[in-house]
């Protein structure tokens, strides 16, 4: 197998992870090509200079509980460059106040309703009916389950803000099995939702270390290091026009050229993947093409902080563990630099849609990450805007969007923010997958059809979850399917 020729379509972290795994297994003789229609590698991982420093124009961090991203960083020599957030709490903006995020919840679903009663009183009936909450293999929307068992306040004030931060979606549209798999599994053995939360939390394995990590210098360093270690030939600005089968080989049309390959990894979003699969695997194409995406916006501000008194006391540093993906990449990123703001001592906060703001989350970068502290005294903030099905706010110009965010943050923080020194808007359209109920079954059917076709695999957030670790694992799994199929 050493002399195999493999084409990886998609130069994001998924495709690069697949290329590196293939290189490690096939050795230097393998001919691996990564093609991407963009003018750079990395996809939603994109570190850009900003106002004398840098700011992520995409994903900011990754979970360490899933060790895939940490292992990848160590593999490419960046283990010593990993940085972890400061132990400062996060909050919810509710009724004009920043409130502690309750402990003992799983994606906002409480194990004990009494612990959230003052923030989101339980109005549903989580009755033990003598059988598991979910039948084997069943899937429902998160919203349907939480509303019936715990009521609308828990859904609106706790669950939806967390889902909105991670997926830019709402509980009524998102699959429980795809977005909170640990809770879905527990619901198939426990007879109440709160009991399922307790069971899922008890099964968590915690090493007691930091929950999140990033790379000093930005996640773009990880992209560059993985690409270099893979030894792959890289073709940028090269959209793939078509994919065809030629006996046991594949023909990949890239611009005006055709690349012959023993195997192909499709590590692109659902719609381009479906387009390429239509002529070779129409059933898989239909399943893949059903996935929809959300477009959202992030706003980053740089301000010299005059820290207020600690607003949240007695909140464990791990209380923010469930919102680590809240800044995940698919966004329009607005970067602002302003002076003279008074900031709470928080890593950030979430804003429920029911509060009526366009802003749905804020991260205070220079409080959350010590290595990003600036010698000029500026604090860097990033707010996210945009929810699935509600894109009107994103139709504003860059200037209008930045102005709206600037004004809303002033109201949420309780005092006007100074005028920004600098503004940068980076837009990502249709980049956060919306996993409707039944998503995992659809992915299973698509992959079952592809198993019968030697030398092709699909990978990425369209199938296996958002976040850097999920994408890395998806790339590794696709590489393994290729290795198995062409052996």
Shape: globular
| Major beta sheet summary | 9 strands, mixed
CATH class membership of the domain at 5-45 and 220-291 and 436-486: Alpha Beta
In the CATH hierarchy, what is the superfamily of the domain at 5-45 and 220-291 and 436-486? FAD/NAD(P)-binding domain
Number of helical elements: 15
The poorly predicted ranges are 307-333
**What is the β-strand count?**
24
- Beta-strand residue percentage: 15-25%
Mean pLDDT: 89
Do you know the CATH topology of the domain at 5-45 and 220-291 and 436-486?
Answer: FAD/NAD(P)-binding domain
Architecture per CATH nomenclature, i.e. the level-2 architecture of the domain at 5-45 and 220-291 and 436-486: 3-Layer(bba) Sandwich
Radius of gyration: 22 Å
Helix content: 25-40%
Task: Considering the chains and any ligands shown, give keywords for the structure.
five-stranded parallel sheet; 24 strands; protoporphyrinogen ix oxidase, domain 3; alpha/beta; globular; FAD/NAD(P)-binding domain; 487 residues; 31% helix; nine-stranded mixed sheet
